[in-house]
C-alpha cells in the first residue's frame, strides 16, 4: 500500500527528531516541511548553552529550504517528546509561527501536529497565529 503524504511527513519528522541536540532540555523535536515542488526538508531542534542561539526543528527545516532557494511551502509535520520517551503533541513556538508567516500562505499552509499520521490534527497557519503580522502588512 502506498503511503500518504501525511504518513511520509510524520515518518521523516520522526527520523529528524533522532538527530536533535538537546543536552539541556532533553526534549527532542523533529519537523518535515513539504515544498510545493514535492521536496521535503527536515529539521531537528538544536540547543545551545546560551539559549538564544538555539534553533527549533521547524525553523531549521525552513532555513535549510530557504537557503537552497525554496520559497513555496505546503505543509509541515511536527513531532516531539522527551529524550527516550513517547511522543507527545507539541505545537510550534511563537517564533516558528512567525517564520511560517514570513514564507507561507496564511490561509492555506497546513501544520500537522500529533504523534503520527494516525494520531494527528491539521491546522491552518491562521488558526495557530490569529491576526498574524507578515509581509503583506508591509505593502504600502
Strand order across the biggest sheet? 2-1-3-4-5
Mean pLDDT: 97
Helical amount among residues, as a percent range? 25-40%
Poorly predicted spans: none
**Radius of gyration using CA atoms only:** 14 Å
Number of strands: 5
- Which descriptor suits the 3D outline? globular
N→C terminal distance: 50 Å
Structural class assignment: alpha+beta
How much strand content do the residues show? Answer: 25-35%
How are helices and strands ordered from N to C?
Answer: HEEHEHEEH
Short précis:
The chain has 140 residues and is an alpha+beta fold. The protein has helices at 5-17, 57-67, 94-103, 125-128, and strands at 27-35, 40-44, 73-82, 110-116, 119-124.
Overview of the structural elements:
This protein is α+β, with helices and mostly antiparallel strands. It is built from four helices and five strands; from the N terminus they run αββαβαββα. The protein has a five-stranded mixed β-sheet. Strand 1 and strand 2 form a beta hairpin. The longest helix is centred in the N-terminal third of the chain and has 13 residues. The protein is globular and about 50 Å long. The termini are far apart.
Which secondary structure elements does this structure contain, and how are they paired or packed?
Blueprint lengths: L4 H13 L9 E9 L4 E5 L12 H11 L5 E10 L11 H10 L6 E7 L2 E6 H4 L12
Parallel strand pairs: 3-4
Antiparallel strand pairs: 1-2, 1-3, 4-5
Amino acid at each position: 500500500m502506498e503511503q500518504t503524504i501525511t504518513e511520509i511527513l510524520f515518518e521523516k519528522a520522526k527520523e529528524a527528531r533522532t538527530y536533535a541536540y538537546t543536552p539541556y532540555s532533553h526534549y527532542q523535536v523533529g519537523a518535515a516541511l513539504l515544498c510545493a515542488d514535492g521536496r521535503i526538508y527536515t529539521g531537528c531542534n538544536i540547543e545551545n548553552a546560551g539559549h538564544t542561539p538555539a534553533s527549533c526543528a521547524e525553523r531549521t527545516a525552513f532555513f535549510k529550504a530557504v537557503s537552497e532557494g525554496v520559497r513555496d511551502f505546503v505543509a509541515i509535520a511536527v513531532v516531539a517528546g522527551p529524550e527516550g520517551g513517547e511522543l507527545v503533541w507539541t505545537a510550534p513556538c511563537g517564533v516558528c509561527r512567525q517564520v511560517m508567516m514570513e514564507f507561507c500562505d496564511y490561509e492555506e499552509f497546513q501544520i500537522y501536529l500529533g504523534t503520527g499520521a494516525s494520531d494527528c490534527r491539521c491546522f491552518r497557519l491562521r488558526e495557530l497565529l490569529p491576526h498574524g503580522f507578515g509581509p503583506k502588512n508591509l505593502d504600502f
